Amino acid sequence: MSQPHTQLATLLRRGQWMLDEAAHKLGGKRLPAADRHAVAAALDELSAALREYRDAPAELPTGQDERPTTVDAES
Length: 75
Prior knowledge:
75 residues, mainly alpha, 59% helix, 0% strand
């Protein structure tokens, strides 16, 4: 798994797992500061990897138009 896309996929899965665990612990008011800092550090690493990732964009089949997903922050 040394290819850039597989490394990024691994970071995405790790982030997903860490966020799931953090959400579960936070719901039970059991998310210590050390865990919050670890999740934040992992998200920083993931964010940097996503910004640096350079790969030829996948071509969509003819006639399809895929737009990026956006997430609106709730106030």
